[in-house]
Design a protein that fits this description.
2 copies of one chain form a homodimer. Chain A is an alpha/beta fold. Chain A has one domain (17-304): Divalent-metal-dependent TIM barrel enzymes (TIM Barrel, Alpha-Beta Barrel), CATH 3.20.20. In chain A, 41% of the residues lie in helices and 15% in strands. Chain A has 11 helices and 10 strands. In chain A, the strands form 2 sheets. Chain A has an 8-stranded parallel barrel, surrounded by 7 helices. The first copy, chain A, has a two-stranded antiparallel sheet with strand order 8-9. In chain A, helix 1 (29-38) packs parallel to helix 3 (56-66), helix 3 (56-66) packs parallel to helix 4 (85-107) and helix 4 (85-107) packs parallel to helix 5. Chain A starts with 16 loop residues before the first strand and ends in a 15-residue tail after the last helix.
Chain lengths: 306, 306
Protein backbone atom coordinates (compact mmCIF):
# COMPACT_ATOMS: atom_id res chain seq x y z
CA UNK A 1 0.00 0.00 0.00
CA UNK A 2 2.15 2.83 -1.32
CA UNK A 3 2.00 6.06 0.66
CA UNK A 4 0.44 4.54 3.74
CA UNK A 5 2.28 5.42 6.93
CA UNK A 6 4.79 2.84 8.06
CA UNK A 7 6.21 2.20 11.49
CA UNK A 8 9.99 2.36 11.34
CA UNK A 9 12.03 -0.85 11.34
CA UNK A 10 13.05 -2.05 14.78
CA UNK A 11 15.99 0.00 16.05
CA UNK A 12 15.39 2.77 13.54
CA UNK A 13 14.32 6.05 15.06
CA UNK A 14 10.73 7.08 14.58
CA UNK A 15 10.58 9.65 11.75
CA UNK A 16 8.98 12.26 14.02
CA UNK A 17 11.42 11.78 16.89
CA UNK A 18 13.63 14.76 17.67
CA UNK A 19 16.17 14.94 20.45
CA UNK A 20 16.28 18.15 22.38
CA UNK A 21 19.87 19.18 22.91
CA UNK A 22 19.29 19.56 26.65
CA UNK A 23 19.21 15.76 26.76
CA UNK A 24 22.84 15.86 25.56
CA UNK A 25 23.77 18.63 27.97
CA UNK A 26 27.52 17.94 28.04
CA UNK A 27 27.92 17.52 24.30
CA UNK A 28 29.05 20.41 22.09
CA UNK A 29 26.89 21.53 19.21
CA UNK A 30 29.11 19.96 16.51
CA UNK A 31 29.16 16.62 18.34
CA UNK A 32 25.45 16.71 19.14
CA UNK A 33 24.57 17.31 15.49
CA UNK A 34 26.96 14.64 14.23
CA UNK A 35 25.90 11.98 16.71
CA UNK A 36 22.20 12.72 16.29
CA UNK A 37 22.46 12.34 12.53
CA UNK A 38 24.58 9.18 12.90
CA UNK A 39 21.91 7.71 15.20
CA UNK A 40 19.43 8.10 12.35
CA UNK A 41 17.31 10.85 13.82
CA UNK A 42 15.99 13.46 11.42
CA UNK A 43 15.53 16.36 13.83
CA UNK A 44 17.00 18.16 16.79
CA UNK A 45 15.90 20.94 19.14
CA UNK A 46 18.73 23.37 19.84
CA UNK A 47 19.63 25.58 22.81
CA UNK A 48 21.08 29.05 22.76
CA UNK A 49 24.12 28.41 24.98
CA UNK A 50 25.81 25.76 22.79
CA UNK A 51 24.94 27.83 19.72
CA UNK A 52 26.61 30.85 21.34
CA UNK A 53 29.69 28.74 22.08
CA UNK A 54 30.41 28.25 18.37
CA UNK A 55 28.75 31.47 17.23
CA UNK A 56 25.57 31.79 15.19
CA UNK A 57 27.27 31.74 11.78
CA UNK A 58 29.07 28.51 12.51
CA UNK A 59 25.95 27.02 14.10
CA UNK A 60 23.89 27.80 10.99
CA UNK A 61 26.51 26.13 8.80
CA UNK A 62 26.82 23.10 11.09
CA UNK A 63 23.06 22.57 11.26
CA UNK A 64 22.78 22.90 7.48
CA UNK A 65 25.60 20.40 6.95
CA UNK A 66 24.03 17.95 9.41
CA UNK A 67 20.93 17.45 7.26
CA UNK A 68 18.78 17.63 10.41
CA UNK A 69 15.53 19.52 10.84
CA UNK A 70 15.30 22.11 13.61
CA UNK A 71 12.31 21.15 15.76
CA UNK A 72 12.55 24.09 18.19
CA UNK A 73 14.96 26.59 19.67
CA UNK A 74 15.28 26.95 23.46
CA UNK A 75 14.77 29.40 24.84
CA UNK A 76 13.48 32.90 25.18
CA UNK A 77 11.35 34.41 27.89
CA UNK A 78 12.30 35.43 31.44
CA UNK A 79 10.49 38.72 30.99
CA UNK A 80 8.52 39.14 34.20
CA UNK A 81 10.56 42.03 35.56
CA UNK A 82 8.81 45.39 35.88
CA UNK A 83 9.76 48.16 33.46
CA UNK A 84 13.39 49.13 33.74
CA UNK A 85 16.86 48.19 32.53
CA UNK A 86 16.53 44.48 33.47
CA UNK A 87 13.30 44.19 31.48
CA UNK A 88 14.81 46.02 28.52
CA UNK A 89 17.83 43.69 28.56
CA UNK A 90 15.51 40.67 28.67
CA UNK A 91 13.44 41.91 25.75
CA UNK A 92 16.53 42.73 23.70
CA UNK A 93 17.83 39.27 24.41
CA UNK A 94 14.54 37.83 23.17
CA UNK A 95 14.88 39.87 19.99
CA UNK A 96 18.27 38.25 19.39
CA UNK A 97 16.75 34.84 20.12
CA UNK A 98 14.08 35.50 17.49
CA UNK A 99 16.73 36.32 14.91
CA UNK A 100 18.71 33.21 15.82
CA UNK A 101 15.60 31.05 15.53
CA UNK A 102 14.89 32.38 12.06
CA UNK A 103 18.47 31.84 10.89
CA UNK A 104 18.66 28.31 12.24
CA UNK A 105 15.23 27.24 10.97
CA UNK A 106 16.22 28.46 7.52
CA UNK A 107 19.44 26.44 7.67
CA UNK A 108 17.74 23.27 8.89
CA UNK A 109 16.36 20.60 6.59
CA UNK A 110 12.88 20.89 5.06
CA UNK A 111 10.22 20.72 7.73
CA UNK A 112 12.24 22.74 10.23
CA UNK A 113 10.08 24.61 12.72
CA UNK A 114 10.94 28.24 13.39
CA UNK A 115 9.70 27.90 16.95
CA UNK A 116 11.20 29.79 19.88
CA UNK A 117 10.25 28.15 23.17
CA UNK A 118 9.50 30.70 25.88
CA UNK A 119 10.00 30.02 29.58
CA UNK A 120 8.36 33.13 30.89
CA UNK A 121 10.23 33.66 34.16
CA UNK A 122 9.34 33.57 37.85
CA UNK A 123 8.53 36.23 40.39
CA UNK A 124 10.95 39.17 40.30
CA UNK A 125 13.23 39.29 43.37
CA UNK A 126 11.29 40.43 46.41
CA UNK A 127 7.92 40.31 44.68
CA UNK A 128 4.86 38.29 45.70
CA UNK A 129 2.70 39.59 42.86
CA UNK A 130 1.97 36.56 40.67
CA UNK A 131 -0.87 38.27 38.83
CA UNK A 132 1.34 41.24 38.00
CA UNK A 133 4.14 39.00 36.76
CA UNK A 134 1.70 37.16 34.51
CA UNK A 135 0.38 40.43 33.15
CA UNK A 136 3.92 41.51 32.24
CA UNK A 137 4.34 38.26 30.28
CA UNK A 138 1.42 39.31 28.12
CA UNK A 139 2.94 42.76 27.66
CA UNK A 140 6.26 41.23 26.62
CA UNK A 141 4.51 39.07 24.03
CA UNK A 142 2.73 42.12 22.65
CA UNK A 143 6.08 43.85 22.28
CA UNK A 144 7.80 40.90 20.60
CA UNK A 145 5.01 39.76 18.29
CA UNK A 146 5.66 42.24 15.46
CA UNK A 147 9.32 41.27 15.34
CA UNK A 148 8.57 37.56 15.51
CA UNK A 149 6.01 37.93 12.73
CA UNK A 150 8.48 39.85 10.57
CA UNK A 151 11.11 37.14 11.14
CA UNK A 152 8.67 34.30 10.46
CA UNK A 153 9.22 32.93 13.95
CA UNK A 154 6.55 31.42 16.18
CA UNK A 155 6.79 32.19 19.89
CA UNK A 156 5.77 29.11 21.91
CA UNK A 157 4.81 29.84 25.52
CA UNK A 158 5.70 26.86 27.70
CA UNK A 159 3.77 26.27 30.90
CA UNK A 160 6.13 24.80 33.51
CA UNK A 161 5.25 22.54 36.42
CA UNK A 162 3.85 24.55 39.36
CA UNK A 163 6.92 23.64 41.44
CA UNK A 164 8.80 26.15 39.25
CA UNK A 165 6.15 28.89 39.57
CA UNK A 166 8.22 31.16 41.81
CA UNK A 167 11.61 30.94 40.14
CA UNK A 168 11.15 29.77 36.53
CA UNK A 169 7.69 30.30 35.09
CA UNK A 170 4.64 32.00 36.51
CA UNK A 171 2.70 30.22 33.75
CA UNK A 172 1.89 26.77 35.15
CA UNK A 173 -0.93 25.34 33.06
CA UNK A 174 -1.86 25.00 29.41
CA UNK A 175 -5.02 26.97 30.11
CA UNK A 176 -2.97 29.95 31.31
CA UNK A 177 -0.64 29.71 28.32
CA UNK A 178 -3.59 29.70 25.93
CA UNK A 179 -5.12 32.68 27.72
CA UNK A 180 -1.86 34.56 27.24
CA UNK A 181 -1.66 33.61 23.58
CA UNK A 182 -5.25 34.55 22.83
CA UNK A 183 -4.77 38.18 21.75
CA UNK A 184 -2.25 37.18 19.07
CA UNK A 185 -2.19 35.50 15.67
CA UNK A 186 -1.74 31.73 16.25
CA UNK A 187 0.87 31.71 13.50
CA UNK A 188 3.02 33.97 15.69
CA UNK A 189 2.15 32.92 19.25
CA UNK A 190 1.62 29.28 20.13
CA UNK A 191 2.27 27.01 23.09
CA UNK A 192 4.74 24.29 23.97
CA UNK A 193 3.43 21.13 25.61
CA UNK A 194 5.83 19.17 27.81
CA UNK A 195 4.44 16.01 29.42
CA UNK A 196 6.67 16.43 32.49
CA UNK A 197 5.13 19.79 33.30
CA UNK A 198 1.50 19.06 32.54
CA UNK A 199 0.74 15.37 33.11
CA UNK A 200 -0.89 15.94 36.52
CA UNK A 201 -3.48 18.47 35.30
CA UNK A 202 -7.03 17.10 35.22
CA UNK A 203 -7.94 19.98 32.91
CA UNK A 204 -5.31 19.02 30.33
CA UNK A 205 -7.56 17.09 27.90
CA UNK A 206 -9.97 20.04 27.75
CA UNK A 207 -7.17 22.52 27.22
CA UNK A 208 -5.47 20.34 24.58
CA UNK A 209 -8.73 20.26 22.64
CA UNK A 210 -8.87 24.03 23.00
CA UNK A 211 -5.27 24.32 21.77
CA UNK A 212 -6.38 22.38 18.73
CA UNK A 213 -9.43 24.55 18.05
CA UNK A 214 -7.34 27.69 18.48
CA UNK A 215 -4.45 26.35 16.39
CA UNK A 216 -1.85 27.00 19.07
CA UNK A 217 0.23 23.85 19.45
CA UNK A 218 3.77 24.70 18.34
CA UNK A 219 5.93 22.07 20.02
CA UNK A 220 5.45 18.75 21.79
CA UNK A 221 8.12 17.56 24.25
CA UNK A 222 8.12 14.27 26.10
CA UNK A 223 9.88 12.87 29.15
CA UNK A 224 8.72 11.07 32.25
CA UNK A 225 7.94 11.88 35.89
CA UNK A 226 9.11 9.67 38.74
CA UNK A 227 9.46 10.07 42.49
CA UNK A 228 11.29 10.55 44.74
CA UNK A 229 12.41 13.74 43.07
CA UNK A 230 16.19 14.25 43.12
CA UNK A 231 17.74 16.91 45.38
CA UNK A 232 17.73 19.36 42.45
CA UNK A 233 14.16 19.30 41.16
CA UNK A 234 15.31 20.82 37.87
CA UNK A 235 16.90 17.45 37.06
CA UNK A 236 13.89 15.26 37.81
CA UNK A 237 13.16 14.02 34.29
CA UNK A 238 13.38 10.51 32.90
CA UNK A 239 13.23 8.59 29.63
CA UNK A 240 9.64 8.08 28.46
CA UNK A 241 8.36 4.89 30.02
CA UNK A 242 10.61 5.05 33.10
CA UNK A 243 7.99 6.86 35.18
CA UNK A 244 4.26 7.27 35.73
CA UNK A 245 3.15 9.36 32.75
CA UNK A 246 0.60 7.73 30.48
CA UNK A 247 1.85 8.83 27.04
CA UNK A 248 -1.01 7.23 25.14
CA UNK A 249 -3.92 9.55 25.89
CA UNK A 250 -1.64 12.60 25.91
CA UNK A 251 -0.03 11.83 22.57
CA UNK A 252 -3.33 10.97 20.93
CA UNK A 253 -4.79 14.23 22.22
CA UNK A 254 -1.81 16.10 20.78
CA UNK A 255 -2.32 14.42 17.40
CA UNK A 256 -6.01 15.26 17.55
CA UNK A 257 -5.08 18.96 17.69
CA UNK A 258 -3.69 18.54 14.19
CA UNK A 259 -0.09 18.88 15.37
CA UNK A 260 2.04 17.31 12.65
CA UNK A 261 5.51 18.36 13.78
CA UNK A 262 8.38 16.64 15.50
CA UNK A 263 8.19 15.22 19.00
CA UNK A 264 11.14 16.15 21.17
CA UNK A 265 12.63 14.11 23.96
CA UNK A 266 13.93 16.68 26.44
CA UNK A 267 15.48 15.29 29.62
CA UNK A 268 17.26 17.14 32.43
CA UNK A 269 18.84 14.42 34.56
CA UNK A 270 22.32 14.33 36.08
CA UNK A 271 22.76 10.59 35.52
CA UNK A 272 21.71 10.78 31.89
CA UNK A 273 23.99 13.78 31.37
CA UNK A 274 26.89 11.73 32.77
CA UNK A 275 26.21 8.94 30.28
CA UNK A 276 27.91 8.68 26.86
CA UNK A 277 25.94 10.65 24.26
CA UNK A 278 25.83 7.67 21.88
CA UNK A 279 24.15 5.64 24.59
CA UNK A 280 21.77 8.48 25.48
CA UNK A 281 20.73 8.68 21.84
CA UNK A 282 20.17 4.93 21.65
CA UNK A 283 18.14 4.91 24.86
CA UNK A 284 16.17 7.91 23.64
CA UNK A 285 15.31 6.11 20.40
CA UNK A 286 14.36 2.90 22.22
CA UNK A 287 12.29 4.49 24.98
CA UNK A 288 10.47 6.67 22.46
CA UNK A 289 9.76 3.64 20.31
CA UNK A 290 8.18 1.80 23.22
CA UNK A 291 6.39 4.57 25.12
CA UNK A 292 5.44 7.20 22.55
CA UNK A 293 5.67 5.90 18.97
CA UNK A 294 2.79 3.41 19.29
CA UNK A 295 0.48 6.38 19.83
CA UNK A 296 1.91 8.51 17.03
CA UNK A 297 -0.47 7.32 14.39
CA UNK A 298 -2.61 9.86 12.65
CA UNK A 299 -6.17 8.89 13.60
CA UNK A 300 -7.38 9.82 10.11
CA UNK A 301 -5.01 7.26 8.60
CA UNK A 302 -5.61 4.32 10.93
CA UNK A 303 -8.12 2.87 8.48
CA UNK A 304 -5.51 2.68 5.72
CA UNK A 305 -2.90 0.91 7.80
CA UNK A 306 -1.94 -2.54 6.59
CA UNK B 1 -16.95 50.11 71.38
CA UNK B 2 -17.90 46.95 73.23
CA UNK B 3 -18.04 43.81 71.13
CA UNK B 4 -16.07 45.16 68.20
CA UNK B 5 -13.22 42.90 67.10
CA UNK B 6 -9.88 43.74 68.59
CA UNK B 7 -6.38 42.94 67.38
CA UNK B 8 -4.54 41.04 70.09
CA UNK B 9 -1.93 42.82 72.17
CA UNK B 10 1.57 42.66 70.77
CA UNK B 11 3.13 39.27 71.55
CA UNK B 12 -0.24 37.67 72.27
CA UNK B 13 -1.28 35.03 69.77
CA UNK B 14 -4.09 35.91 67.41
CA UNK B 15 -7.31 34.34 68.75
CA UNK B 16 -7.84 32.34 65.53
CA UNK B 17 -4.28 31.06 65.31
CA UNK B 18 -3.87 27.30 65.69
CA UNK B 19 -0.63 25.40 65.49
CA UNK B 20 -0.73 22.19 63.56
CA UNK B 21 1.17 19.53 65.46
CA UNK B 22 3.25 18.69 62.38
CA UNK B 23 5.03 22.00 63.02
CA UNK B 24 6.18 20.48 66.35
CA UNK B 25 7.07 17.17 64.74
CA UNK B 26 9.56 16.01 67.40
CA UNK B 27 7.37 16.96 70.36
CA UNK B 28 5.16 14.39 72.10
CA UNK B 29 1.42 15.02 72.38
CA UNK B 30 1.54 15.91 76.09
CA UNK B 31 4.38 18.39 75.55
CA UNK B 32 2.81 19.85 72.42
CA UNK B 33 -0.47 20.51 74.23
CA UNK B 34 1.22 21.97 77.31
CA UNK B 35 3.60 24.23 75.38
CA UNK B 36 0.88 25.38 72.97
CA UNK B 37 -1.39 26.37 75.85
CA UNK B 38 1.49 28.02 77.68
CA UNK B 39 2.28 30.06 74.57
CA UNK B 40 -1.24 31.47 74.77
CA UNK B 41 -2.69 29.77 71.70
CA UNK B 42 -6.30 28.63 71.93
CA UNK B 43 -6.24 25.83 69.35
CA UNK B 44 -4.18 22.99 67.93
CA UNK B 45 -4.46 20.61 64.96
CA UNK B 46 -3.52 17.06 65.94
CA UNK B 47 -1.98 14.14 64.06
CA UNK B 48 -2.81 10.49 64.38
CA UNK B 49 0.70 9.17 65.07
CA UNK B 50 1.37 11.14 68.28
CA UNK B 51 -2.20 10.39 69.38
CA UNK B 52 -1.55 6.66 68.81
CA UNK B 53 1.66 6.93 70.85
CA UNK B 54 -0.27 7.76 74.01
CA UNK B 55 -3.47 5.98 73.03
CA UNK B 56 -6.81 7.63 72.16
CA UNK B 57 -8.19 7.57 75.71
CA UNK B 58 -5.19 9.37 77.11
CA UNK B 59 -5.15 11.76 74.15
CA UNK B 60 -8.78 12.67 74.73
CA UNK B 61 -8.07 13.37 78.40
CA UNK B 62 -4.92 15.37 77.64
CA UNK B 63 -6.66 17.52 75.05
CA UNK B 64 -9.58 18.13 77.42
CA UNK B 65 -7.22 19.11 80.22
CA UNK B 66 -5.27 21.45 77.95
CA UNK B 67 -8.24 23.72 77.40
CA UNK B 68 -7.35 23.93 73.68
CA UNK B 69 -9.74 23.72 70.76
CA UNK B 70 -9.16 21.03 68.16
CA UNK B 71 -8.88 22.79 64.80
CA UNK B 72 -8.44 19.64 62.67
CA UNK B 73 -7.22 16.07 62.79
CA UNK B 74 -4.61 14.85 60.32
CA UNK B 75 -5.04 12.68 58.49
CA UNK B 76 -7.18 10.16 56.66
CA UNK B 77 -7.18 9.31 52.98
CA UNK B 78 -4.68 7.27 50.97
CA UNK B 79 -7.52 5.34 49.36
CA UNK B 80 -6.61 5.27 45.67
CA UNK B 81 -5.86 1.54 45.54
CA UNK B 82 -8.15 -0.61 43.43
CA UNK B 83 -10.58 -2.94 45.21
CA UNK B 84 -8.79 -5.53 47.30
CA UNK B 85 -7.26 -6.04 50.74
CA UNK B 86 -5.08 -2.90 50.60
CA UNK B 87 -8.12 -0.77 49.83
CA UNK B 88 -10.16 -2.42 52.57
CA UNK B 89 -7.39 -1.81 55.07
CA UNK B 90 -7.21 1.84 54.04
CA UNK B 91 -10.96 2.32 54.39
CA UNK B 92 -11.02 0.60 57.78
CA UNK B 93 -8.21 2.85 58.88
CA UNK B 94 -10.24 5.86 57.76
CA UNK B 95 -13.18 4.59 59.82
CA UNK B 96 -10.94 4.55 62.87
CA UNK B 97 -9.72 8.04 62.02
CA UNK B 98 -13.33 9.25 61.86
CA UNK B 99 -14.01 7.85 65.34
CA UNK B 100 -10.84 9.41 66.68
CA UNK B 101 -11.78 12.78 65.19
CA UNK B 102 -15.19 12.65 66.85
CA UNK B 103 -13.76 11.72 70.24
CA UNK B 104 -11.08 14.39 70.13
CA UNK B 105 -13.37 17.17 68.90
CA UNK B 106 -15.78 16.36 71.73
CA UNK B 107 -12.94 16.58 74.25
CA UNK B 108 -11.57 19.85 72.90
CA UNK B 109 -12.71 23.25 74.08
CA UNK B 110 -15.84 24.92 72.69
CA UNK B 111 -15.41 25.76 69.01
CA UNK B 112 -13.48 22.58 68.26
CA UNK B 113 -13.83 21.46 64.67
CA UNK B 114 -14.56 17.78 64.04
CA UNK B 115 -12.63 17.93 60.79
CA UNK B 116 -10.67 14.99 59.39
CA UNK B 117 -8.16 16.19 56.79
CA UNK B 118 -7.89 13.77 53.86
CA UNK B 119 -4.74 13.37 51.78
CA UNK B 120 -6.20 11.18 49.11
CA UNK B 121 -3.14 9.19 48.02
CA UNK B 122 -1.06 8.94 44.86
CA UNK B 123 -0.99 6.50 41.98
CA UNK B 124 -1.06 2.86 43.11
CA UNK B 125 2.26 1.08 42.52
CA UNK B 126 2.76 0.35 38.84
CA UNK B 127 -0.27 2.37 37.75
CA UNK B 128 -0.35 5.31 35.32
CA UNK B 129 -4.10 5.78 35.56
CA UNK B 130 -4.61 9.17 37.19
CA UNK B 131 -8.26 9.40 36.19
CA UNK B 132 -8.97 5.97 37.67
CA UNK B 133 -7.24 6.87 40.93
CA UNK B 134 -9.28 10.04 41.17
CA UNK B 135 -12.47 8.10 40.55
CA UNK B 136 -11.62 5.74 43.39
CA UNK B 137 -11.23 8.74 45.71
CA UNK B 138 -14.84 9.61 44.97
CA UNK B 139 -15.89 6.04 45.63
CA UNK B 140 -14.04 6.03 48.96
CA UNK B 141 -15.81 9.23 49.99
CA UNK B 142 -19.17 7.70 49.12
CA UNK B 143 -18.36 4.74 51.32
CA UNK B 144 -17.18 6.83 54.28
CA UNK B 145 -19.79 9.58 54.19
CA UNK B 146 -22.54 7.74 56.11
CA UNK B 147 -20.13 6.91 58.89
CA UNK B 148 -18.72 10.41 59.01
CA UNK B 149 -22.23 11.85 59.12
CA UNK B 150 -23.23 9.49 61.93
CA UNK B 151 -20.14 10.49 63.89
CA UNK B 152 -20.65 14.20 63.27
CA UNK B 153 -17.31 14.42 61.49
CA UNK B 154 -16.54 16.50 58.42
CA UNK B 155 -14.21 14.97 55.85
CA UNK B 156 -11.98 17.69 54.38
CA UNK B 157 -10.36 16.75 51.07
CA UNK B 158 -6.98 18.47 50.77
CA UNK B 159 -5.58 19.22 47.34
CA UNK B 160 -1.79 18.87 47.45
CA UNK B 161 0.77 20.63 45.28
CA UNK B 162 1.09 18.94 41.87
CA UNK B 163 4.65 17.89 42.73
CA UNK B 164 3.03 15.30 45.01
CA UNK B 165 0.50 14.09 42.42
CA UNK B 166 2.14 10.72 41.81
CA UNK B 167 3.00 9.69 45.37
CA UNK B 168 0.79 11.64 47.79
CA UNK B 169 -2.36 13.08 46.29
CA UNK B 170 -3.89 12.74 42.84
CA UNK B 171 -6.04 15.74 43.80
CA UNK B 172 -3.93 18.79 42.99
CA UNK B 173 -6.29 21.76 42.78
CA UNK B 174 -9.16 23.23 44.75
CA UNK B 175 -11.35 22.84 41.68
CA UNK B 176 -10.75 19.08 41.65
CA UNK B 177 -11.41 18.83 45.39
CA UNK B 178 -14.70 20.68 45.01
CA UNK B 179 -15.69 18.45 42.10
CA UNK B 180 -15.07 15.41 44.29
CA UNK B 181 -17.05 16.89 47.17
CA UNK B 182 -20.01 17.90 45.02
CA UNK B 183 -22.15 14.75 45.38
CA UNK B 184 -22.13 15.00 49.16
CA UNK B 185 -23.67 17.12 51.92
CA UNK B 186 -21.28 20.05 52.58
CA UNK B 187 -21.69 19.42 56.31
CA UNK B 188 -20.03 16.04 55.80
CA UNK B 189 -17.58 16.61 52.95
CA UNK B 190 -15.59 19.82 52.73
CA UNK B 191 -12.14 20.88 51.59
CA UNK B 192 -8.89 21.91 53.22
CA UNK B 193 -7.02 24.90 51.83
CA UNK B 194 -3.28 25.02 52.36
CA UNK B 195 -1.48 28.05 50.95
CA UNK B 196 1.68 26.04 50.24
CA UNK B 197 -0.18 23.69 47.92
CA UNK B 198 -2.38 26.17 46.10
CA UNK B 199 -0.71 29.56 45.94
CA UNK B 200 0.46 29.14 42.33
CA UNK B 201 -3.00 28.39 40.87
CA UNK B 202 -4.40 31.24 38.79
CA UNK B 203 -7.84 29.65 39.15
CA UNK B 204 -7.70 29.79 42.96
CA UNK B 205 -9.73 32.99 43.49
CA UNK B 206 -12.54 31.59 41.33
CA UNK B 207 -12.48 28.26 43.13
CA UNK B 208 -12.35 29.90 46.57
CA UNK B 209 -15.47 31.87 45.70
CA UNK B 210 -17.06 28.61 44.57
CA UNK B 211 -16.02 26.94 47.86
CA UNK B 212 -17.85 29.75 49.62
CA UNK B 213 -21.01 29.42 47.53
CA UNK B 214 -20.99 25.67 48.01
CA UNK B 215 -20.20 25.91 51.75
CA UNK B 216 -17.20 23.61 51.53
CA UNK B 217 -14.33 25.29 53.34
CA UNK B 218 -13.52 23.14 56.38
CA UNK B 219 -9.93 24.08 57.25
CA UNK B 220 -7.44 26.80 56.36
CA UNK B 221 -3.72 26.09 56.76
CA UNK B 222 -0.91 28.56 56.13
CA UNK B 223 2.79 28.32 55.52
CA UNK B 224 5.12 29.77 52.93
CA UNK B 225 6.83 28.69 49.69
CA UNK B 226 10.46 29.48 48.97
CA UNK B 227 13.08 28.21 46.53
CA UNK B 228 15.41 26.49 46.14
CA UNK B 229 13.40 23.54 47.39
CA UNK B 230 15.30 21.35 49.87
CA UNK B 231 16.49 17.87 48.82
CA UNK B 232 13.35 16.37 50.36
CA UNK B 233 10.50 18.33 48.80
CA UNK B 234 8.17 17.17 51.57
CA UNK B 235 10.06 19.50 53.92
CA UNK B 236 9.91 22.63 51.77
CA UNK B 237 7.66 24.76 53.96
CA UNK B 238 8.44 27.96 55.80
CA UNK B 239 7.01 30.36 58.36
CA UNK B 240 4.42 32.70 56.82
CA UNK B 241 6.27 35.73 55.50
CA UNK B 242 9.56 33.91 54.85
CA UNK B 243 8.68 33.12 51.24
CA UNK B 244 6.79 34.38 48.20
CA UNK B 245 3.15 33.72 49.08
CA UNK B 246 0.93 36.76 49.24
CA UNK B 247 -1.24 35.94 52.26
CA UNK B 248 -3.40 39.05 51.95
CA UNK B 249 -5.58 38.23 48.94
CA UNK B 250 -5.71 34.53 49.88
CA UNK B 251 -6.76 35.14 53.46
CA UNK B 252 -9.33 37.75 52.50
CA UNK B 253 -10.76 35.34 49.93
CA UNK B 254 -10.97 32.64 52.61
CA UNK B 255 -12.80 35.01 54.95
CA UNK B 256 -15.16 35.97 52.14
CA UNK B 257 -16.26 32.34 51.91
CA UNK B 258 -17.68 32.75 55.40
CA UNK B 259 -15.02 30.56 56.98
CA UNK B 260 -14.97 31.49 60.67
CA UNK B 261 -12.76 28.73 62.05
CA UNK B 262 -9.18 28.53 63.17
CA UNK B 263 -6.21 29.15 60.91
CA UNK B 264 -3.49 26.54 61.28
CA UNK B 265 0.20 27.04 60.76
CA UNK B 266 1.45 23.71 59.42
CA UNK B 267 5.15 23.55 58.55
CA UNK B 268 7.21 20.56 57.45
CA UNK B 269 10.81 21.73 57.63
CA UNK B 270 13.84 19.89 59.00
CA UNK B 271 15.43 23.03 60.44
CA UNK B 272 12.26 24.09 62.21
CA UNK B 273 11.80 20.56 63.53
CA UNK B 274 15.31 20.70 64.97
CA UNK B 275 14.51 23.92 66.80
CA UNK B 276 13.23 24.08 70.40
CA UNK B 277 9.41 23.82 70.47
CA UNK B 278 9.08 26.92 72.64
CA UNK B 279 10.98 28.90 70.01
CA UNK B 280 8.94 27.37 67.18
CA UNK B 281 5.75 28.42 68.95
CA UNK B 282 7.05 31.94 69.43
CA UNK B 283 8.13 32.24 65.82
CA UNK B 284 4.80 30.80 64.69
CA UNK B 285 2.93 33.43 66.72
CA UNK B 286 5.13 36.25 65.46
CA UNK B 287 5.14 35.27 61.80
CA UNK B 288 1.39 34.76 61.84
CA UNK B 289 0.91 38.15 63.47
CA UNK B 290 2.91 39.84 60.74
CA UNK B 291 1.93 37.90 57.61
CA UNK B 292 -1.60 36.60 58.21
CA UNK B 293 -3.33 38.36 61.12
CA UNK B 294 -3.56 41.78 59.42
CA UNK B 295 -5.85 40.16 56.84
CA UNK B 296 -7.98 38.23 59.34
CA UNK B 297 -10.57 40.93 59.78
CA UNK B 298 -14.17 40.14 58.99
CA UNK B 299 -14.92 42.46 56.04
CA UNK B 300 -18.45 43.00 57.40
CA UNK B 301 -16.98 44.40 60.61
CA UNK B 302 -14.27 46.64 59.20
CA UNK B 303 -16.61 49.63 59.46
CA UNK B 304 -17.02 49.15 63.20
CA UNK B 305 -13.31 48.98 63.93
CA UNK B 306 -11.99 51.70 66.23
Amino acid sequence: MTGSPRRPELGQPHPRLSINQATLKRTSLPDALRLTAQAGLAAIGLWREPVAEVGLTAAVRLLGDSGLRLSSYCRGGFFTDPEGPARRRALDDNRRAIEETAALAQAGAAGSQAVLVLVVGGLPAGSRDLAGARQRVGQALAELVPEAAAAGVRLAVEPLHPMYASDRAVVSTLGQALDLARPFDPAVVGVTIDTFHLWWDADLPTQLARAGREGRLAAYQVCDWRTPLPPDVLLARHYPGDGVIDFGPLTRAVLATGYAGDVEVEIFNAEIWADRPERVLRRTVDSFERAVAPHLIDPAQVGSMP
